[in-house]
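Our preliminary data section would be incomplete without showing what the modeling component actually yields. Below, a chain of 722 amino acids is followed by its predicted structure, encoded as tokens that our downstream tools consume directly.
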Amino acid sequence: MRHILFLFIIIFSAQSINAQQKATWIYYPGDFEIWLGNEMQNRRTERGTFFPPFWKMDSHYVLVEFSKKLDLAQPEEVQIYAEGRYNVKLDGKMISGYPTVVKIPAGKHSLNIKVHNQANVPAIYVKGKTVQSDNTWQVTFEDKEWIDESGKASDTSSGTMYLNASSWNFDSPENTPSKFKLTTEPMSAVKSEQKGNGTLIDFGKETFGFVKFHNLKGKGTLNIYYGESPEEALSTASCETLDRLPIDNSNAKDLTIEDSKAFRYVYIEKDNSLSYDSVSMLYEYLPLDYRGSFRCNDALLNQIWDISAYTMHLTSREFFIDGIKRDRWVWSGDAYQSYLMNYYLFFDSPSVTRTMLNLRGKDPVTSHINTIMDYTFYWFMGVYDYYQYTGDKTFIEQFYPRMQSLMQYCLSRTNSNGMMEGISGDWVFLDWADFKMSKTGEVSFEQLLFCRSLETMALCAKLVDNTEDSNKYTSLANDLKSKLFTAFWSGKENAFIHNRENGVQSEQVTPYTNMFAVLFGYLDQDKTNAVKNNVLLNPDALKITTPYMRFYELEALCLLGEQKHMLKEIRNYWGGMLNEGATSFWEKYNPNEKGAEHFAMYGRPFGKSLCHAWGASPIYLFGKYYLGVKPASPGYETYAIEPNLADLKWIEGKVPTQNGDIYVYCDTKQIKVKSDTGTGILTVKSKSKPTCKNTSINSKGGNTYEVEILKGKEYTITYKAL
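Predicted structure:
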């Protein structure tokens, strides 16, 4: 027994050393995300012209200090790499030059590395036998010579302290943050045909990457017109993106276009002196695993899930972006939906935090996120959702000060009623709608999101043990919530009205406030039924024509038990795009439009994005409301499973979590469940009491039963569907 124990100790010690040996590049929290966002979002062009974002763009801190307290049992040689000019201090004493190897004696020491880099993010990679750069290092953009032994600033008059360093996946000295690029792989075209004065190339489906010419030779101009449709590519005067390249190749050689673009079709016109053998592309993408899945007996719904997943992957790049053709920017409203879809497809937490940190930027706050009021509120909501799905409390603790300053900005702009109104510089967006709606005065939808954001602040303040803030934000949220009903609920319409100006209610009822009030649980049963019948299921109510807001509309209907109705809507709406030839889902779809009308938007014949992140929402809806899986406590420590067949015969799929997958199969007679994480409660609706060999079934009354699901066990429940 002693030999076995001794062997265990040796193995455990070796594993500990191996774990310690993993080093990674580290940097100031949020700085890489801001730098990378600046690099990416300034690549947009419109017909060959540089088109930068129109909101304030922050920059990384150019001078950063990294600090680590060491306690070494033995002397150690430590290798140091840095992105930028740097100095090294050991126990407060400067080491001459730019040392690449530092010898550290046994005992307790302080190691400080200060890096300056104007062009890229200051970053370090430190590698020793037990010392390595990781998230346990601390970092500051100020001079913190007075740091005490606890690692906290002994003088906090500046209001700042060291933070834990951030990292991603830059795990070798050569793999520096400044060299980050997405992955590429070759793809061939599926069809080529002569059209007019040029050649139309078809790559078979919506895609993104770099067009490549093989054995291009001659001198002249090469004109390349990109299109998500053949009509767009062939419209040399109106297509959204193009390249016009001077070529001077005396010898044939391959040419890969410098900038990546979105397209399915490429139309090429060239001077007669130019020739090439063929055209292919390098597909550019972020490597992500499709961990979530969904299948059922309806082939159309399976296709919709597949196209949704492809759409989501195309728009999951350096960050979660809106659409791949036109903007390629990070918009908070689009990103908020991408976070939710990600939790049911990839569960890639770094993509969520990268996007949130890029959107938040730096202090001081001088405008709403993306200049849009509602997009600021989506940012707050996204932070709390992230905590619910991942359980990552550290992220909240690190960035709570940025939440505080952003909320303080919002509170500084409230009117005398404590409500948000659009003022100079604000964009009140809501949705791209085919009906007219006022966006002035107190818009009820904005107050609803503001209230939810205040609730989020209260919850996050509690997580970081800030009782004063928690009480303050709770009080503000409760006060605003009560005002929502006195200011905007119409007894005549039995619904929330759209807005109020100068104390006068409008008469317009729009879907937005009403469906979000359902989602947030703000309504009692009578008001819930009123909204359901007067707005959500009312055939004469104003119609939503963007997948953006259809997402929330359908989720609200699911919460109200209308899964059958929702499937009908998904088949008609998303299936309608497929009938129009979609290979990814669009920014907007109006079934009443015909032909090339589907491509127009913003007053431009091809302004609409035919691959837009918010078109991928069936991923989330199928995972949460049909497979029925959702976290009940942060990080899926506990969770709920409530499968819903609606009008289907069977469903099957996986929902990813931070610590593994949850598998669900359901037909009218059996439910099968297996989970890699936490403790779940499976809710079963059955005509008679279900049976399961390896667990007990608890009756909750009303033909409802519950089964406890434990990690690592497989369950088969036999039941009779209602």
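Residues 1-20, 146-160 have pLDDT under 50 and may be disordered. The longest strand covers residues 198-227. Preliminary results of this kind motivate Aim 1 of the renewal.
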